[in-house]
Amino acid sequence: MIVTKAGRRMFPTFQVKLSGLDPLADYVLLMDFIPLDDKRYRYAFHSSSWLAAGRADPAAPGRVHFHPDSPAKGAQWMRQIVSFDKLKLTNNLLDDNGHVRTRPPGAGTLTYLGRMERGGGGPAHLPPSHLPPPHPQLHAPLPAPLPCRRRDSERFAHQNFKTFSFPETQFMAVTAYQNHRITQLKIASNPFAKGFRDGDPEPW
Amino acid sequence: MIVTKAGRRMFPTFQVKLSGLDPLADYVLLMDFIPLDDKRYRYAFHSSSWLAAGRADPAAPGRVHFHPDSPAKGAQWMRQIVSFDKLKLTNNLLDDNGHVRTRPPGAGTLTYLGRMERGGGGPAHLPPSHLPPPHPQLHAPLPAPLPCRRRDSERFAHQNFKTFSFPETQFMAVTAYQNHRITQLKIASNPFAKGFRDGDPEPW
DNA sequence: CCCTTTTCACCTAGGTGGTAAGAT
DNA sequence: ATCTTACCACCTAGGTGAAAAGGG
């Protein structure tokens, strides 16, 4: 994924379909990102692969992205696919513009994973001792006590929530694409990059 | 205001600054429109004025527009000006696309007034016997019982809310502008109509 | 040298009133 | 005759990767 100072959307967007919620209970849905390890990577063009190259910067505080519809009833969340298309990735440690979200310090080459959470919110980032998680898993949200709106929610943490992560959502965070095939895949599939397409439609 | 089948934004946007709320309580903010009378109007070009011309269609059920940030804490509402810029006016009696909102039946010439409400929501339209209100007033919201999210809120009505209306927010709903000076005012002030401006900037 | 930031042309997405055609 | 709809050119607003410029 491209990461910028102003914040860049993920593509494709992280989307989930929820089931098993209490239709009448209120839920807050949120997402954060966990480094798969504490290494820094470098792309080796000759072998077309990522090579470990030193340690990553010390654990960034790790921010949390609340789904804008939070809080909402379980019935509302389950009605249709929940899309985190407003989420943006940034490498700016300061600037916390509204929905702009997490990424680690300087190096643009850490492996990340979308993690969806629930509950009061809070510093949902796992303590460094938990890293790296062997296999990212996806967990699902639970009902919460009612007074939970954004800010207020951030007090409660690590209680009454389930976390889910998906291995297939791993990605490399970069400030510029390293692999030309990734670039072409994005150009071919992201509507906003249509201006860079040439010729043959949709072989993806 | 122009009113279309697909829904048209108001311009200028209805905005309010709130004070006196309980910072920690949850509030739902909503808005609806009340005909100033039950007459139908026709624009007389020769006198440049609106003339009453028969009765309006029977009271349309009158829909309600919930501010998208609802519910939120009083502190959140008071932090900055609350803008209803997502609100749209429509003359389509059926089609209730998300945020699209009220307007009466056929005639595009009724006088309306933005009315902001609070509480469970519900059929906030006043019964016909209350029409026309002599002078539209603006009322302010009150704290509500917690489980209030959109749909669920619509059960509760006429309880625990205050209504405010402003005389200066009266307008004529039309399907096409009748008064050329209104057209020019909109073109001069609405950024999206910049394409129709010619020459001199901002004499408004 | 490698990585990041800035700027840009080119898109998507959607809000304007004008205009002509349609509806009653 | 009057009101409404559908379509249009022209905007705002913002999401793309490319390319050039900047920084350690």
From TrEMBL, chains A, B:
Keywords: DNA-binding, Nucleus, Transcription, Transcription regulation. It holds the Pfam family T-box. Residues 1-198 form the T-box domain. Coiled coil: none annotated. The keyword Nucleotide-binding does not apply. GO terms for biological process: cell fate specification; positive regulation of DNA-templated transcription. One of its GO terms (molecular function) is RNA polymerase II cis-regulatory region sequence-specific DNA binding. The keyword Nucleus applies. It comes from the Eukaryota. It is found in: Nucleus. One of its GO terms (cellular component) is chromatin. Its main location: nucleus. PANTHER family: T-BOX PROTEIN-RELATED (PTHR11267), T-BOX TRANSCRIPTION FACTOR TBX10 (PTHR11267:SF102). This is T-box transcription factor TBX1. It comes from Chaetura pelagica. The lineage of its organism: Eukaryota, Metazoa, Chordata, Craniata, Vertebrata.
